[in-house]
Every structure is written in C-alpha cells, then in structure tokens.
Write a structure and sequence with these properties.
This protein is mainly alpha-helical. The protein is about 70% helix and about 0% strand. It contains five helices and no strands. Helix 1 packs antiparallel against helix 2, helix 1 runs antiparallel to helix 5 and helix 2 packs antiparallel against helix 3.
Length: about 160
Amino acid sequence: MASTTSGDSLPTGSKIFSTIPDVFFIPEFVIGGLVWILVASTRITPFENPLGWVMFVSVFCFVLTTLWFFIFLCGANQSNIWPSLDAGYHFLAVIFYLSASVALAYITIMNKTLSQIIDGLKIYRLDISAVVMSYVATLLYFIHAIFSAIRWRRS
C-alpha cells in the first residue's frame, strides 16, 4: 500500500539534484538545447520538410523544461496535482520528441545525396548529430516520465 507521508512529496530547492526523476532535468535541458542548435545550423531545402516541427518541439520542450526546473527549484510544486502534471508533461514530451526524431531521421536520409553534392559531408554530419541527440533527448524524457509516473502512483 502506498504511503502518503511527507517523504513522497515532490522535492524542492537543491533536493531536486538528488532525486531520481528530477536529476534528469539538466541532461534534458542540455541535450534539448543541442538538438535546437544542431537543427538550426542545418540547411533547409526548398521543398516541404518537417524541420519546423522539429524546431517547435525542441524549443517548446527546452522552454517548458526550464520553466519546470525553476518551478521545482523554487518550491511552487507542493500541490497535490503536481505529480500528475509532472508525469503528464514528460509523457507529452516523449511523444513530441519521438515524432520529431522520426521526422528528422527521415529528412536526414532523404537529404543524404543532396548534402553530399552541395556542402560535402558537413551538413550531413550535423543532421546525423541532430538525429542522435534527438533520440537521446527522447530517451531522457522517457526515463523521466517513467520515474515521474512511479512517483505519481506512490503519492
């Protein structure tokens, strides 16, 4: 049976650097920022491509993760609804990042020959780096979502 003691409440202040789901805030922030930078530095081809969706997802998750981090850091997360909001946000971020990662991988595969003809391998390597970082961000958000859901279930 799950207990509802104060030990199960969400951490505040510097305690977020030692609790298992919340320790993923910093890597999510860093890897999400790398996705944003790498996608912004690639070449956009004139035909329709989903790089706008990838940029939206990376900027949206970067900003909301930063906001979420500061809410936890300041201690404004002590209401009963925050554990469910935390799990819900991170599952939404997983869905967004997974769709963006698949779209980015598709565009990278489709632009392989075009990138090699125009700029050599530089742009193609940036695209591959963006795809890898996007999947790493998806994994980080997924792990955070699972541990947040476990914490929500316990509260």
